[in-house]
Amino acid sequence: MIVSDDRKISELKNFMREAKSKEHPDSQLISILHKTQELYGYLDQEVMSEIAKEMSIPTAHIWGVATFYHYFNLKPTGKHVISVCLGTACYVKGAEEILNSIRQELKIDFGQTSEDKLFTLQEARCLGACGLAPVIMIDDKIYGSLTPKKALEIIKSYRK
Amino acid sequence: MITIHINDKAYQVENDQTIMQAADKLGFHIPRLCYHPKLSIEGACRVCIVEVVGMRNYVASCAYPVSEGMKIYTNSEEIRRARRDIVELILDNHPEDCHTCERDGNCELQRLAFAMGIRKRHFEGEKKHYEKDLSSTSVIRDPNKCILCGRCVRICSEIQKVNALGYAHRGFKTVVMPAYNMPFKDSVCTTCGQCINVCPTAAFVEKNFTQELFGKLGDRSLIKVAQIAPSVRAAIGEAFALEPGRQFEKELVAALRKLGFDHVFDTQFSADLTIMEEASEFLERFQGRGKLPMITSCSSAWMKCLEQFHPDLIENVSTCKSPMSMASALIKSYFADKIKADPKKILSVAFMCCTAKKYEASRPELMVEGIQSTDMVITTRELAWMIKSAGIDLLHIKGEEFDHPLGYSSGAGTIFGVTGGVMEAAIRTAYELYTGETLLDIEIQEIRGLKGVKEGKLVIDGKEIRIAVAHGLGNANEILNTVRKDPERYHFVEIMGCPGGCIGGGGQPYAGSNSMPLDEECLMKRAEALYGLDRNKTIRRSHENPDVQRLYKEFLGRPLGPMSHKLLHTHYKAKEPRGIIPSELTVK
Which of B40, B198, B560, B576 has its CA 20 to 30 A from that of B465? Predict the structure, then answer.
């Protein structure tokens, strides 16, 4: 039971209590989902049902918001999330080769998590760092001017 | 009043309405798809666009208000072309299987394509490929047929307040589904079937048992027993292109015999029986033995709603089974004894206006001696199809009488099909049971009609009894919240899951080409058909039904007695997933 993690659920509940005291609690759902993803790494169904009860928002509606935005993960992610930018600049500068080398190394595709649960691979449409193209982002850190070799070295450094 | 111009002619219209509303009243029917008068404005389909002079783009007439001097074109060549293109684009993504589709002939999209003059297709669009959700006992969801008009989502959230459905994902991949894409049967869906009623295509249809039933009707080893709910007779004519309001009671009995049923009974008989039990139960509670207010339990969608959304009120709900389940229990006990048949050899089929009854039939609590009491539930729509498919001429058939001993009913049993009817029937009997005197003024006008929540008062033997009636699960929420806040406010509450009561059930005929699903005028005509049947009966009080009296004498003993408890009463328990009633703050 994921919601039996006391620390996380009580932090989330505090967050929701605060949201409810705001002027438009109905507009707080997205920020609550952000908080959930920050705490759990993804949006667990059990947790979404807790949000539904606490905020009196039907689960079908929460599910609609959760599935609308690509940002939200609906499945557990690995310890680190690798976002490979496939925006125009990165693509022109060889993002596909970088992507392929990471795919081969981790044996996973977009949306999947490596067997050791260390990495989840995601596609990004532009990370706003076009000057450094091609780039990848691991968790919230940007790595630029990459070659396939450099990318693999960076990934290796996360394995330690 | 303001002046607007439609197609170059000036009209005086009221302010504060949309272009579509104004046009409707003037006799211009602007084509439409996602619009429904009972639901919020979605503006999703763009079919109802019109040209307003001075506006850069065409406007959706369902959402745009009229204003002084507005010049509107509803039918210019450009607007016709634009509208046709919009419908064509919807068709491009729609499966091209009209001739094998369940809604063939009464599909709003099909009608619209015809009216737009689409006689050939120019583009082949991307089709959707999703699995149908066949998990529910009652409602099939087929996202491939869905055109994302959102009427189902809106009726489920705005009228029923069940919120079983939402939009998930986005763009072309948007799908209407329950939370977490869970199977329908595991969701909070109450199986009321209103999504089917409002769906313009076949994205929602009932779980159909007609082929299976045709198969069983040919099985000579089975004794085939039918029962018909009141509202079926009040609406089935509409499936034969008749105007609403004509009843087909006797014709249906004849048609069912022609289909192969050996015995045709009336759910109205067991409605009378329900009243005997329910009125007695109410008087017990009223005299201090049990919780008040007592809430009725006939509506299956309401039962599921109760268990998921309002488990704190379970003790308030009558333990009486629905009339359908009472009749079925008797068919497989009392009646089986009478004809000296093995209950396992009886096929008990209920013809209902309701999709939720399919769910009710599957409830394990309702089994009798280890066997399911209702083997199959067939909706009005399915029955209409069976009658047509078997080549029976319902409109010219000679009427026949119901069979005994479960076929005779009072007028009180008839009005069960209309919102307020159960309450009215119960009062007709409770009054006499309590006072020993006959209630003379038996038509209780204050609880008739289509107002969402109706309240009334009556005095029985010097004591005031306060009653309330709700139809549609959204209106039920309102009464239940009142009950929570002020438990003394009412003594007796009637709740029906569907708008209008059973006459507006999820299994009733689809709206004809000139009307909208759940049109109030249509509901009122169906109601009037039942009130007319009631008025024309000599016996209008359940306790005066001679067959009911005989049943107690021969078999049941007395109301609420041990036999009644075994066969006619049931229980409820809290269920997961627990439904969420949205606070007014969080959902529009």
Answer: B560
Using CA coordinates, name the residue in chain A closest to B588. Answer: A26
* CATH of the domain spanning B2-90, picked from 3.40.50.300, 3.90.320.10, 3.10.20.740, 3.40.630.10: 3.10.20.740
Beta B139-141 vs B59-60: how paired, if at all? unpaired
Does residue A52 belong to the interface with chain B, where contact is any CB pair within 8 Å? yes
Please list, in sequence order, all residues whose beta carbon lies within 8 angstroms of the beta carbon of residue B426, skipping any fewer than 6 positions away: B275, B278, B279, B282, B296, B492
ipTM score over 0.95, yes or no: no
Nearest to B227 by CA among B353, B390, B360: B353
Is B392 strand, coil or helix?
coil
* pLDDT tens-digit readout, B477-521: 999 999 999 999 999 999 999 999 999 999 999 998 777 888 999
B169–A68 CB contact, under 8 Å:
yes
Chain B interface, mutation test: which of A59, A62, A65, A71, most B Cβ atoms within 10 Å?
A59
Q: What is the CATH number of domain A80-159?
A: 3.40.30.10
Q: List CB contacts (< 8 A) between B587 and chain A.
A: 26, 57-58, 61
Active site members of B: 278, 281, 298, 318, 357, 360, 365, 502
CATH architecture for the domain at B139-207: 2-Layer Sandwich (3.30)
pLDDT in tens, B260-280: 999 999 999 999 999 999 999
CA atoms within 13 A on the CB side of B221: 3
Across the A:B interface, residue pairs with CB atoms under 8 Å apart total 70
